Amino acid sequence: MAAPLVLISHGNLCVELKKSVELIMGPQPDIRTVALEPKAGPAEFLAEFTQATEDLEDFVVFADLYGGTPCNVAAKLLLGGATFKLYAGMNMAMVIDYLNAAMLGQDPNPVSGGTNGICDVNAQLQQLTDDD
């Protein structure tokens, strides 16, 4: 079983990403979300993040953007001694790969899972056309 997953983002990206993942993978009670609301700052986000993770001993965090406020707040916690894994650049393929690894009893590799989901569809279609 993989550690619980916490998705953090600017606005509701994390909330909607969880909903989209659940369309494919079913309900995901071990995924939590913390959204940075438009009028909130780092202090408010930190309070929400702390509340969302206070009962977790081990967890993994996927942030939307490296260098953005949600990622920076989480990174400051790590610098202060917190212990969790933090990855930035989250996408749907990354989350699904993480969940699939957990179901298969494998160690997840979020960076690989996220980047393997990136594809130039036009190039793939051209390759199919060229093969005919």
TrEMBL record:
Alphabetical keyword list: Cytoplasm, Kinase, Phosphotransferase system, Sugar transport, Transferase, Transport
Keyword Transmembrane helix: no
Sequence ranges assigned to domain PTS EIIA type-4 in this UniProt record: 2-132
InterPro entries: Bacterial_PTS_sugar_comp, PTS_EIIA_man-typ, PTS_EIIA_man-typ_sf, PTS_IIA_man
Keyword Transferase appears in the UniProt entry: yes
Domain of life: Bacteria
Entries under CDD domains matching the protein: PTS_IIA_man
Subcellular location: Cytoplasm
Entries under Gene3D superfamilies matching the protein: Phosphotransferase system, mannose-type IIA component (3.40.50.510)
UniProt name for this protein: PTS fructose transporter subunit IIA
Species name: Ligilactobacillus pabuli
Taxonomic lineage: Bacteria, Bacillati, Bacillota, Bacilli, Lactobacillales
